[in-house]
Amino acid sequence: MSYPSPHDRSRKDDEDDPVEQMISRTGCAELHYAVQECMAEHQDWRACQKHVQSFKDCMTNFQNTQKERRKAQLPSSGSSS
Q: Per residue in 19-37, pLDDT tens?
């Protein structure tokens, strides 16, 4: 019996996976998949550090952008008038 690759992004169940959905919203999905594919190929996270670092940097940038957006939406607490 043939099973689909766990890295096949055309699978229907990926669409229902909340983690996959969250990562897709960050704009870092392709980097996440690159980490997964590297891990599947090498079976050693040390061989995938370039991919891991790229994904980490992307996620950090996304989180920083989100923080800045939330800050910009907060009403200024120092002004009264």
A: 999 999 999 999 999 999 9
